[in-house]
Amino acid sequence: xxxxxxxxxRHISLCEALDRVLNTGxxxxxxxxxxxxxxxxxxxxxxxxxxxxxxxxxxxxxxAGPPLVPDSRGGPRPxxxxxxxxxxxxYQPSGAKAVVAADSNxxxxxLAQLVLTLMKxxxxxxxxxxxRRIQGGALAPAQxxxxxxxxxxxxxxxxxxxxxxxxxxxxxxLDLGPLGKLL
Length: 183
Hints:
Blueprint: H1 14-24, E1 26-36, E2 39-50, H2 53-59, H3 107-135, H4 141-164
Antiparallel strand pairs: 1-2
Helix pairs in contact: 3-4
């Protein structure tokens, strides 16, 4: 009789693991509730598809409804026999790009600006939702107080970090082109 000996697992790099995920594709479904001071403010129902462009094209036939992935111009893919790009004047590729200023002297500030901008947007959304919950009359005075103090502390910390990185206050309000300002 032969003795069973499990083989050692081959260790792979994070880059190789991510490449495998992108090559095969992943679909994630989830629900997230964002709360501040134990008060639920935002509910997110998520459906996320993560795949490489090439794998996405292989997974979804061209005539199977909305594209799984956009073409390289950010717009929809053509249907079989369709002229590409469309000749009508109303066609505009979709997708706005946020530009974060970063030159050779400010590379770390470019990343800080992006992260702080995301934090600021999330904070502003939480603040607006907190006001809606308060106006709805469903919160006790103690909850309202905790919520207000927590949101004030968040705002102070975002401002402190912004100052630490030498970013102007308007530096966290990115211009999204045709969509307008972020905040």
